[in-house]
Amino acid sequence: MQVPEKKEKIIKEAKNRVIIAFIASVTLGLAPFFPEPHLFGKWRWLLGGAEGMQAMDWFDLVLHTSPWVYLIYSLANYIRLTRTAR
User: Fold this and answer.
1) How far apart are the C-alpha atoms of 79 and 19, rounded to whole Å?
2) Got the DSSP string for 9-48?
3) DSSP secondary-structure letter at 54?
4) How far apart, in Å, are the Cα atoms of 60 and each of 67, 79, 82?
5) Tens of pLDDT, residue by residue, the chain (86 residues)
6) Positive or negative: CA dihedral 34, 64, 24, 11
7) CB burial string 18-55: b at 16+ within 10 A, e below
8) Euclidean distance between CA atoms 11 and 78, whole angstroms
9) What is the spatial distance between Cα 39 and Cα 48, in angstroms, rounded to a whole number?
10) What is the C-alpha separation between 73 and 71, in angstroms, rounded?
11) Residues 79-86: contacts with CB under 8 Å, at least 24 apart
12) I need a surface site. Which of 9, 27, 50, 55 has the fewest CB within 10 A?
């Protein structure tokens, strides 16, 4: 069974979104890379009780987590589209 052209274009666009989300996650989501990714430190701080976290720290957490959330969303959408295209 062949996939219609319009559906094929939608799947290609979804794949491009996954690639962009992956690049954003690896760069912005993990920056700065040394001595450890900022995201890991923020999550460790949050899971440790978030003592002393201020507004800037919360903003930083959201900034570094959002590309990963978008990657998960894009990947789920891509998988859903490819499964319904069959």
Assistant:
1) 13
2) HHHHHHHHHHHHHHHHHHHTTT-S-SSS-HHHHHHHHHHT
3) -
4) 12, 30, 34
5) 566 788 889 999 999 999 999 999 999 988 888 888 888 988 999 999 989 989 999 999 999 999 999 999 999 999 999 998 76
6) positive
7) beebbebbeeebbeeeeeeebbeebeeeeeeeeeeeee
8) 7
9) 14
10) 5
11) 81/7, 81/10, 81/11, 81/14, 82/11, 85/3, 85/7, 85/8, 85/11, 86/1
12) 55
Instruction: Tokens 């912005």: give the residue.
Output: 28
Q: How far apart are the first and last CA of the chain?
A: 7
Specify whether the CB–CB gap between 85 and 79 falls below 8 A: no
Q: Can you give the pTM of this predicted structure?
A: 0.84
Structure tokens at 64: 């570094």
Q: Which two tokens stand for residue 58?
A: 């919360």
